[in-house]
Amino acid sequence: MRAADRPAAGVPLNGSPAGPGASPNARSIRLAVAGLVTLGLVADKAHAEADHSRATLGVRHWVTAAVAARPATATAATSKLRLRVRIRISDHAIDSRFFGVAGAEWPDLDVAAGGRDTVAWEDQRCHRERGLPKIGVVDIEAQPEHGAGLLLAQVRQRGMRLPSDEIIERKALDGLPPTAALAIDAETKSTGFRLRITLHAAPCPLEIEPAALSSQAR
Length: 218
Prior knowledge:
The protein is an alpha+beta fold. It contains two helices and nine strands; from the N terminus they run H-E-E-E-E-E-E-E-E-E-H.
């Protein structure tokens, strides 16, 4: 090959410029690729931090009960009594499990004024989110202060005789506090007691072993 036919230094045989003398288009492409790689690394880091944050955030549940005022039917003979409600709770998560019956009691309830919100049950620890627990009223028991007989209301059960005072449950939709995840209004047919059972949920920091955190961050 004659010297005149040889390609100039820094220019490939296909005629495209390379090296320091590359065209502006080639430099723009390289800068764009580098920018995309940098953005990808930043996005991966942000996703990892978000996943780590979600992994270390759990939930804590608790259940409260309140008695509604009943001024229309309150009489001198039944204005004060001891009232107790029992609630069946099923709360299952990977790191915390509870299934059983919890109760709330108002030992000196003024029927006309109602009973304030009382904690019937609460989680012993923060745990991972596994959906809402199941709650339901088992029975409501009232003992008037003047020695009258015990008043007992129960929910209807399959295969069992209808209770003399049945509890009707309805899902509550209004007047709920910010932490409420679910609320049930329970009313007794014969005695006319009305209670609101509220399931609360609040985020909380999970206590996870450092080794578990490292494996989740990878």
